[in-house]
Design goal:
With 294 residues, the chain is mainly alpha-helical. The protein is 74% helix and 0% strand. The chain has 2 domains: 110 residues, Four Helix Bundle (Hemerythrin (Met), subunit A); 130 residues, Helix Hairpins (Orthogonal Bundle), CATH 1.10.287. The longest helix has 48 residues.
Length: 294
């Protein structure tokens, strides 16, 4: 018997063809959405009739067992190949926790079942492309987070020295020690009530030039460093789009290789398309650059 694979194009058995079919995937997706809705409704169980809560819990339990059967079927088909996919690991752990005896005590872990709706990322191509781009941007994001953490630490030390020595209880809660200063600066960085809840209290405490300190922090942390996250994600999305386009062109070229009389003309057309795309990317890149000062 041929070994099953995790791709959706080849089938080594009828069971594999069934669990990889569109209707089966749509059924599982629908159950994931229904399960997520049930878990959301159950957050209001104190306000719902007891019979409805019982029915929803029973439906939740039934769906969980259906998910367990789904995983057992996949384990039967794929065997150890099943664990080569990170999403399969995620499903296995979440469902396993849900069906353990006494798992109701771990309400946080049980609530993680709602994350199964993230499997929809496999169904929608654009969502999958965005997710893959975000994952590829994570290493660069780590470097930006490190820069932001270092910047916050430096400003937190300065804020504690400048404003922490005070008898004002409100300012003392904001900048009385290093962790409090770091948390207050995080609020300033997000610009959530930063003027009246943080800066104005410091100014009223006898520091009229405190606004200058916080404005420099906002310009550096919020307007400069945080925007690097957006630039990094946009760059990753552009690279992912370019890779997808190149893959599509390569597939077309493979089809052209097996074409008949018009093969040479089609190859020339593909070559011209590649050239025009390269020129378009270069033009867009040049347009995004600031003009050289004369």
């Amino acid at each position: 018997m041929a070994r099953a694979t995790l791709d959706l194009e080849t089938h080594a058995s009828q069971l594999e063809a069934a669990i990889e079919s569109i209707w089966f995937r749509n059924l599982v997706t629908a159950l994931i959405i229904v399960n997520a809705i049930i878990l959301g409704i159950l957050t209001y169980q104190n306000r719902l009739p007891g019979t409805l809560v019982t029915a929803l819990n029973a439906a939740d339990r039934a769906i969980t067992y259906i998910f367990a059967v789904e995983i057992l079927l996949k384990l039967t088909v794929y065997r150890f190949q099943f664990f080569r996919s990170g999403w399969n690991w995620f499903d296995f752990i979440v469902v396993g926790i849900s069906i353990l005896p006494g798992s109701e005590a771990f309400s946080v872990l049980r609530a993680l079942r709602v994350l199964r709706v993230l499997r929809l990322l496999h169904v929608v191509p654009m969502m999958k492309r965005i997710t893959e781009a975000l994952l590829k941007a994570l290493p660069g994001m780590g470097a930006i987070v490190a820069v932001l953490a270092l910047l916050t630490y430096v400003y937190a030390v300065m804020a504690t020295d400048l404003y922490g020595d005070t008898d004002n209880e409100e300012v003392l809660q904001l900048f009385g020690d290093l962790p409090s200063s770091a948390f207050s600066l995080f609020q300033v960085m997000t610009m959530d009530g930063w003027r009246f809840e943080v800066v104005q209290k410091v100014i009223d405490d006898g520091h009229p030039w405190a606004w200058l300190f916080f404005m420099t922090f906002i310009f550096i942390a919020s307007f400069a460093v945080l925007n690097l996250f957006i630039a990094l994600v946009v760059e990753a999305l552009a690279a992912e789009q370019k890779a997808a386009t190149e893959e599509l062109l390569e597939d077309i070229e493979e089809d052209v290789e097996h074409a008949g009389e018009d093969r040479d003309e089609m190859l020339k057309l593909l070559s011209s398309i590649r050239t025009e795309m390269a020129e378009l990317r270069a033009a867009l890149t040049q347009q995004d650059r600031p003009e050289d000062s004369t």
